[in-house]
Design a protein that fits this description.
By secondary structure, the chain is an alpha/beta fold. The protein has a domain at 22-61 and 91-162. The protein has helices at 4-11, 16-25, 39-53, 84-89, 132-146, 158-162, and strands spanning 27-28, 56-60, 64-67, 74-77, 95-102, 111-120, 150-154. The strands form 2 sheets. Strands 1-7-6-5-2 form a 5-stranded mixed sheet, sandwiched between helices.
């Protein structure tokens, strides 16, 4: 598969180092990482940390495809999982949610909800551009960020606790 983001960057004269910088900026590793923890355990920690904040709600975003046992037709599920080919180019995050943000300077209490899309990884994870999955997840995160959302790739719950 062609790396759509690299091809796009070259078309517009954006150097590979800028794409690498974008990936680094949306990838946050936690200072409180505990080696040996599973991705599922980190995900549970992140959901709990978000709930404790009081200004964020996160939902699990399972995605995939299963055959309908009655018809044999494949049923796709999960945010953005519309086709097999599309899913190779862009994979949505493990969690999606809403982060309540104050939008007025005068502190009157006008809020908006901002999309937040954390991708959860086990401690020690590093992005690999050789991985089609990592590139597709980075493409989703870059799209969310470009549209004003908050996309993160997390290896601990600390960044959620620290978000301002």
């Amino acid at each position: 598969m062609t790396d759509v983001w690299t091809e796009w960057a070259r078309t517009w004269g954006i150097p590979d180092v800028a794409i690498a910088d974008l990936i680094a900026r949306i990838t946050i590793t936690g200072a409180s990482e505990v080696a040996g923890r599973s991705e599922s355990a980190v995900l549970a920690d992140i959901r709990l940390a978000a709930a404790k904040r009081g200004d964020m709600v996160l939902w699990r975003n399972n995605s995939g495809a299963l055959p309908n046992p009655e018809t044999g037709r494949w049923i796709r599920f999960g945010l953005g999982h519309e086709s097999e080919e599309g899913n190779k180019r862009m994979k949505s995050s493990d969690l999606v949610g809403i982060w309540r943000r104050l939008i007025t300077e005068d502190m009157v209490g006008t809020y908006m909800g901002q999309l937040i899309a954390p991708e959860v990884k086990k401690p020690g994870w590093k992005h690999s551009n050789a991985s089609e999955r990592d590139r597709a997840q980075a493409a989703f995160a870059a799209t969310v960020t470009a549209m004003g959302g908050c996309a993160l790739r997390l290896t601990s719950d600390q960044p959620i606790k620290d978000l301002k």
